[in-house]
């Protein structure tokens, strides 16, 4: 360590390495300061231009009426009042919650079951892992276009398969009650990443734990809830949070399947997710101020949900290793 | 592989699940080769082959342009984010500069920020710069690094023994030399992961092309595909065989990428959560 050598020679052998202490910063430490800042500078600049600045701008805009033709006009809390008066905002919000409430728990359970199966088949798991991840490579628009056909009420493959086991499938993409389940279905199809994450977590659980539990006479259920779930709780926690945040911002599928020039009035109310309505307000109606207020409401909601999840998570998540 | 009775139910279940995940893609390719009237028939091998669907996509829309656009934008976005994130990650991993912890905390917290909050002002910036209806807004922001990739790469850089850098210092290597000659080459697998992730993200993105592009010649593949779907929906008669063929064209490059980068991609996905 060159740093040690230089400091030792200049400050005498009794002085320990103290590059992190405040009062006296050696020229070397100051050089390191400069170098460090130089390396992180691209991100700092990008953060100021594309994150911090726009955040402030967006907050300011949210208190204005701005249609892009004229300069923004201050309207106080008007946009925020409108948020709670606009039935479509509330509808979009509730649709988004319903979609997330279907996708996140179902996705977690499906992915966990699949990952546990993969683990049990041993080496063949690699093949299945690849197969499960494949749909993740499909662009959202292509997946949505494909599912419009697969979920076709009369002739779609999904209903044909349901027919084999005697179920009369719904008119997925046209019946208002089934639009959100349709969207959730597309998301469940592209769940491979979560499976891969769980599989890695499961492979990290020490085998001895199960062997010891077996000796103590613990059954499959006890082992699952007392060993597997706590040991992979970090991965579960991570995916639940990221999947929830992603679900709250879902756009591609809903917009491809139900919006654009072709949008059907009947269908649109039930499939209107929050980001679609925000996008429409900003870039189709050019209500930039109102859309900014919508964005901040979404931010606050995501913050609250994540905060809640972290609070609950901290009580149950077990991290092996120091932390 | 011997199949014990205990494992049989698992294998059956997994086979069914594999079917559910993979079959839609197989179906898509098969349907893209059928005439419209037979798109919904059950045959995997089309009764009547109609590869002309692809010719008709070519004639109906500038698909070749869209492919080239997606490749260009994807490459620019991925290369920019990989290089810049690596430089920044090295800064956070190696140097103990004043303000580092605070700055890194800010970086981590930006990961939670929904894109919607910055979307409108960022659009106004590009609008001010006269960059609307160009592809620059689709990738230029990546030149400044991305929080998630910085975080990921920092974890990899931290894994490099510090002695290697100290040895290089002794040999007269500067800070940037340490990055370029030691950190960068040693983290190649991680850099490939970042490149592939971002390329895939860029290839799939619909929102940015919707916001920034108006001229069909500048569209990326997803934006173009959406245009095709909309066009048929507007005309009232669904020429689904063309939309399907276009979907296949949008998917295949990603499948090829996956075929080559499989190990990297899957191991990369697995580590993202573990590093967190």
Automatic annotation (TrEMBL), chain A:
GO terms for cellular component: plasma membrane. GO terms for biological process: transmembrane transport. Residues 1-27 are annotated as: Disordered. Residues 1-10 have a biased composition (Polar residues). The chain crosses the membrane at residues 35-63, 97-118, 130-151, 182-203, 224-251, 285-308. It comes from the Bacteria. CDD domains: TM_PBP2 (cd06261). It is found in: Cell membrane. Keywords: Cell membrane, Membrane, Transmembrane, Transmembrane helix, Transport. It is a multi-pass membrane protein. Belongs to the binding-protein-dependent transport system permease family. This is Carbohydrate ABC transporter membrane protein 1 (CUT1 family). It comes from Kribbella amoyensis.
From TrEMBL, chain B:
Keywords: Cell membrane, Membrane, Transmembrane, Transmembrane helix, Transport. Gene3D superfamilies: MetI-like (1.10.3720.10). It holds the Pfam family BPD_transp_1. Residues 67-261 form the ABC transmembrane type-1 domain. One of its GO terms (cellular component) is plasma membrane. It is a multi-pass membrane protein. InterPro entries: MetI-like (IPR000515), MetI-like_sf (IPR035906). This is Carbohydrate ABC transporter membrane protein 2 (CUT1 family).
């Amino acid at each position: 360590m060159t740093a040690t050598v230089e400091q030792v020679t200049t400050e005498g052998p009794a002085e320990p390495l103290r590059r992190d202490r405040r009062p006296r910063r050696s020229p070397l430490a100051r050089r390191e300061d400069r170098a460090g800042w130089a390396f992180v500078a691209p991100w700092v600049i990008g953060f100021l231009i594309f994150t911090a600045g726009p955040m402030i701008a967006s907050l300011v805009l949210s208190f204005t009426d701005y249609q892009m033709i004229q300069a923004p006009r201050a309207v106080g809390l008007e946009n925020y009042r409108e948020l709670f008066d606009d039935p479509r905002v509330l509808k979009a919000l509730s649709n988004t919650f319903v979609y997330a409430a279907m996708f996140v728990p179902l996705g977690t359970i499906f992915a966990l079951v699949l990952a546990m199966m993969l683990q049990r088949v041993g080496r063949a798991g690699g093949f299945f892992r690849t197969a499960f991840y494949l749909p993740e490579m499909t662009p959202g628009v292509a997946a949505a276009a494909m599912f419009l056909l697969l979920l076709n009420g009369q002739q779609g493959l999904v209903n044909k398969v349901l027919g084999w086991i005697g179920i009369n499938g719904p008119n997925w993409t046209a019946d208002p009650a089934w639009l959100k389940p349709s969207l959730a279905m597309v998301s469940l199809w592209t769940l491979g990443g979560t499976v891969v994450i769980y599989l890695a977590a499961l492979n990290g659980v020490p085998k001895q734990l199960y062997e010891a539990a077996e000796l103590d006479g613990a059954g499959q259920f006890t082992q699952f809830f007392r060993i597997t779930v706590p040991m992979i709780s970090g991965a579960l926690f991570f995916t639940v949070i990221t999947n929830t945040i992603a679900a709250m911002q879902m756009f591609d599928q809903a917009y491809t399947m139900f919006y654009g020039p072709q949008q059907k009035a009947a269908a649109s109310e039930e499939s209107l997710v929050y980001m679609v309505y925000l996008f429409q307000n900003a870039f189709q109606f050019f209500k930039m101020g109102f859309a900014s207020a919508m964005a901040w409401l979404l931010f606050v909601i995501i913050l609250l949900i994540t905060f809640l999840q972290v609070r609950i998570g901290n009580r149950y998540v077990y991290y092996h290793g120091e932390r | 592989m011997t199949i014990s009775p205990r494992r049989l139910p698992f294998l059956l279940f997994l086979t069914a699940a594999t079917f559910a995940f993979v079959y839609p893609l197989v179906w898509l390719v098969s349907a893209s080769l059928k005439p419209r009237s037979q798109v919904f028939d059950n045959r995997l091998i089309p009764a009547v082959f109609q590869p002309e669907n692809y010719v008709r996509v070519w004639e109906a829309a500038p698909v070749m342009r869209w492919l080239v656009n997606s490749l260009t934008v994807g490459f620019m976005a991925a290369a920019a984010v990989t290089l810049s994130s690596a430089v920044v990650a090295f800064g956070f991993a190696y140097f103990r500069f004043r303000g580092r912890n605070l700055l890194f905390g800010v970086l981590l917290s930006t990961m939670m920020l929904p894109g919607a909050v910055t979307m409108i002002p960022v659009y106004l910036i590009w609008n001010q710069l006269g960059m609307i209806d160009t592809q620059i807004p689709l990738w230029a922001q990546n030149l400044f690094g991305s929080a998630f990739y910085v975080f990921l790469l920092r974890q990899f850089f931290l894994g490099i023994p510090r002695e290697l850098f100290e040895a290089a210092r002794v040999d007269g290597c500067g800070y940037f030399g340490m990055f370029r000659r030691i950190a960068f080459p040693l983290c190649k697998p991680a850099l490939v992961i970042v490149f592939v992730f971002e390329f895939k993200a860029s290839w799939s993105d619909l929102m940015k092309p919707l916001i920034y592009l108006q001229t069909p010649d500048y569209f990326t593949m997803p934006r173009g595909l959406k245009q095709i779907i909309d066009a048929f929906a507007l005309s009232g008669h669904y020429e689904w065989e063309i939309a399907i063929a276009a979907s296949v064209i949008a998917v295949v490059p990603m499948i090829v990428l996956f075929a080559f980068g499989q190990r990297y991609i899957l191991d990369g996905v697995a580590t993202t959560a573990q590093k967190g």
